[in-house]
Amino acid sequence: METSRNYSWRTLVLEILAGLLALLFLVPFYFVIVNSLKKFADILKNSASLPKEATFDNFTRAWTILDFPRAFTNSLVITILANVFLALFCSMAAYRLVRFPSRFNNIVFMIFVAAMVIPFQSIMIPLVRVAANLNLTGNLPGLIICYLGFGASLTIFLFHGFVKSVPYEIEEAGIVDGCSPFSVFFRIVLPLLKPMVVTVFILNTLWIWNDFLLPLLIVGGNPNLRTIPLATNSFFSQYTKQWDLALAGLLMGITPIIIFFLALQKHIIAGIAAGAVKG
User: What is the 8-class DSSP label of residue 191?
Assistant: First the structure.
């Protein structure tokens, strides 16, 4: 009864407006899906209309031209390894910064937080020069290392807030039982960080999977090392833009990440909310 009494016309209007706003955000998906099923001439005639005769030939040709299995494998390997290393190293760093407070650790944490506001475009040229001097260009390990550097700031920031919500008494009990510092972290603390680990995986996966600029700078045009965004960009040149194939390739590329996000999106709010309990 209380729920029905609190439901008003104002709530109904807000829900309708929210639904319309959600539909507005879905408009780009409509254009991608509809035009990926059209021939190139039909896209030029009317890109907003439904396809008169849906064709899946675009997907077949895009699959072959992109060498999609190779591009998908490259994106998958980069995303998984970068995520694993980020979650492992950044959780350890955040745990150290929280559990051993000092002026030095506070300064280090503030440096990581400050690094979050530096635009990537402002350090592109120094990054390429440093990466070239360290032989990090033209190979996937170098790209993964670069992702570790750029993703560390936000990841440490998220873990830092979450570690504060972990009761220290649990760790003290482990120390009394004879656990070493590494055992305390890996057997006690890390399992409790699972909600934030999932959140970090989701956020970093959305970023790394869809990233175009950093792979372009590090691996360049090597066809054997191209990620899905780099491979899809091959449909665009100075004089030719193959929208029919590009949209089909784009749809194939974003489908796995959409499924991944929809399956795990609830963990984002849960993890960030849990990390905001203390601090």
Answer: H
CA distance 42 to 53: 10
What are the tokens at 15? 């829900």
d(CA 49, CA 71): 31
Contact 37, 56 (CB under 8 A): yes
- Quote the crossing angle between the two packed helices 140-163 and 124-133, to the nearest 10°: 120
Nearest to 155 by CA among 199, 195, 190: 199
Which residue in the block uniquely carries the two structure tokens 């649990």?
170
**249, HSE (Cβ side, Cα atoms, 13 Å):** 26
Average pLDDT taken over every residue of the chain: 86
The H or E element that residue 154 is part of is helix 140-163
Least Cα distance to 42 among 243, 249, 252 occurs for: 243
Q: pLDDT tens, 192-212?
A: 888 889 889 988 998 999 999
Q: What is the pLDDT of residues 72-94, one digit of tens each?
A: 999 999 999 999 999 999 999 99
Domains of the chain: residue spans and CATH: 2-45 (no CATH), 58-275 (1.10.3720.10)
